[in-house]
């Protein structure tokens, strides 16, 4: 039997048995590793090499930054300032979301970290201001990839 069939088949069987998805993925992977007869040391080394990535380290720290900004009240002050500057424009908070996303992604170089940090700050603020949640999420996700297209000079 091919490793692909073992992987997918065991995953689907475990899901059908109501095993949580995270455990089903892990167990299906272990079944496939055992079928292939791979040495566990090389599997462990490959797993560590895959997650030992400096750009991935930025994501939890940007999530922490967004949480600290929300809990510390910095978000409310920033939003009041932004409202005073572009509050008269229809959809001003959406404009702010796009500009902040461009700046964050340009500085960090990571669209995922940008989405996590800006989303943690601006999505709740946009929902509080009356924007629909799907629109706020879609705008944040779409604007976070702009940082890779435009490199702002700061």
Describe the protein in words.
- This protein has 154 residues and is mostly helical.
- The chain has 2 domains: 3-51, no CATH class; 54-148, no CATH class.
- The chain contains 8 helices and no strands.
- It has helices at 3-16, 21-36, 40-51, 54-72, 74-86, 92-108, 111-128, 133-144.
- Helix 5 crosses helix 6 (92-108), helix 6 (92-108) packs parallel to helix 8 (133-144) and helix 7 runs antiparallel to helix 8.
- It starts with a helix and ends in a 10-residue tail after the last helix.
- Keywords: Cell inner membrane, Cell membrane, Membrane, Transmembrane, Transmembrane helix, Transport.
- Part of the tripartite ATP-independent periplasmic (TRAP) transport system.
- The chain crosses the membrane at residues 48-70, 91-113, 133-152.
- It is found in: Cell inner membrane.
- This is TRAP C4-dicarboxylate transport system permease DctM subunit domain-containing protein.
């Amino acid at each position: 039997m091919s490793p692909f069939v073992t992987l997918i088949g065991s995953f689907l069987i475990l899901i059908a048995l109501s095993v949580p998805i995270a455990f089903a993925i892990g167990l299906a992977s272990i079944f496939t590793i055992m079928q292939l007869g791979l040495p566990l040391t090389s599997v462990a080394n490959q797993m560590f090499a895959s997650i030992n990535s400096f750009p991935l380290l930025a994501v939890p720290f940007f999530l922490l930054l967004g949480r600290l900004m929300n809990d510390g009240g910095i978000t409310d002050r920033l939003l009041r300032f932004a409202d005073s500057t572009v509050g008269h424009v229809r959809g001003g908070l959406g404009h702010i979301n796009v500009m902040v996303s461009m700046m964050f992604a340009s500085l960090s170089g990571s669209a995922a970290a940008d989405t996590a940090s800006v989303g943690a700050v601006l999505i709740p603020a946009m929902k509080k201001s009356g924007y629909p949640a799907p629109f706020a999420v879609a705008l944040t996700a779409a604007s976070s990839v702009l940082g890779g297209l435009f490199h702002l000079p700061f």
